[in-house]
Sequence to fold (188 residues):
Amino acid sequence: MIYTINNFTQVKILPNSLYVFDIDETILTIKYHDSPEYKSILNKNLPIYNNDLKKANIHSFREYMLKDELHIPIPLDNDNFFNLINKIRFNNSKLIFLTARDSSLKKQTINHLEKIGLFINPDIIFFNDNKGDELLNIVNNIYKNNKLLNLKNIIFVDDVFLNLSDVQSKFCFSNYHLHLYLIKHNFF
Ligand SMILES: [Mg+2]
Fold:
């Protein structure tokens, strides 16, 4: 079951849980779509990626980000988000970020998170556009048996339905209780 929410107060607070947040359009936005510079990069890349808009967007975003580190991220629902992550931290649960951004954007991503006031260990940011596979890998190889002994719930918040359904299908044989939230901020 995938729940649609429009702010972070609607995310359940549970113990022994792994909270996974997407970054772009989930906790912050960089209004690159409207920029003429971005549009020209995308138009250049579309034929290179056989008009596959998803792939062209991912590569164009990376190119745009590498060109200029001065983009200003706009936080989305920041007060409720910080309230939520404080509760997660005090509730024996863990917090990670899972973004479709390319891993070459690690430095810019840390910078963007810091600009919205989020100072975190960079090791909890994971980069992969195959979110289901990546999350399965994280849970199986990194968190299981060492950092999250009693992991029961996985809470995943993303603004893209396909990412949520991908995670849902990859975890269908696991014993974890999945809580999937499609976040649609009222700003859009
Ligand atoms: Mg997103």
Notes: The chain has two domains: 2-29+74-183, 36-67. Strands lie at 2-5, 17-21, 28-29, 74-75, 94-99, 125-127, 153-158, 177-183. DSSP finds six helices and eight strands in the chain.
